[in-house]
Write a structure and sequence with these properties.
The protein contains 3 helices and no strands.
Length: 83
Amino acid sequence: MPYIEKKQRPEVVEKGATDAGELNYLLTYHILRYLNSMGLCYQTINDIVGALKCCSDEFYRRIVIPYEDKKIEMNGDVYEKNQ
């Protein structure tokens, strides 16, 4: 959970995250704002979970896979038959 000190929270919202805990807080902050504005119901929950899943999938597809492919080229594939 994004349990950063209360005094840090406004600055994180204003300036953005500088570490993983702050990033977690910032994402949670925006999710809760959306939840509060839309109301707690199945549709809102489904919207949030779907958006998070699609965002995660797209980040993985666009950022992680190309990064890992470059590392395979640099360091060799651990899945090669003849290691």
